[in-house]
Amino acid sequence: QVQMVESGGGSVQAGGSLNLSCVASESTDSAYCMGWFRQVPGKEREGLATIDTDGIASYSDSAKGRFTISKDNAKNTLYLSMSSLKPEDGGMYYCAADFEYTGDCAFYYDLEYRGKGTLVTISS
After folding, report:
1. Measuring CA to CA, which residue among 50, 20, 11 is closest to residue 117?
2. How many other CB atoms are there within 10 angstroms of residue 9's CB atom?
3. Which pLDDT score is estimated for 73?
4. Three-state DSSP class for residue 20
5. What are the average pLDDT values for consecutive 10-residue runs of the chain, which has 124 residues?
């Protein structure tokens, strides 16, 4: 069982920035696809960004231009750098990874292993 542990959430004012991290118990170099998504109570899970084994990233419309997904295979860590945050960006942020899916990673959020999340709160 692969463990994914997110960190870096917190409370920030609108317009501010946050950097999230996610440490995996397996080598991220072996992950065909990794991603971030968020969940707000009462709403559907929203995919934000994915990154494939070659480091090619894809972003949802809400994340594009403001969020950057990256990974450091030497640290088995996935990152999400967020800027120009808006109140509607608040929610529980989860990282995920899949070590078997070999299809197109772009916008593929049904990843097998997920963390327990880190809470992001944006105040206006």
Report:
1. 20
2. 18
3. 94
4. strand
5. 96 97 94 94 93 94 97 96 97 96 87 96 94
Distance from chain centroid for Cα 108: 12
Per-residue model confidence (pLDDT) at position 70 = 97
What ranges make up the beta strands (E) of 8-116?
10-13, 18-24, 33-39, 46-52, 57-59, 67-72, 77-82, 91-98, 113-114
Neighbours of 80 (CB within 10 A): 26
Q: What is the CA angle 26-47-96, rounded to 5?
A: 10
Per-residue pLDDT, 106: 87
| CA 37 vs CA 41, 67, 74, 93, 98: distances in Å | 14, 12, 23, 6, 14
pLDDT of residue 41: 86
CA neighbours closer than 13 Å in the CB half-sphere of residue 25 = 8
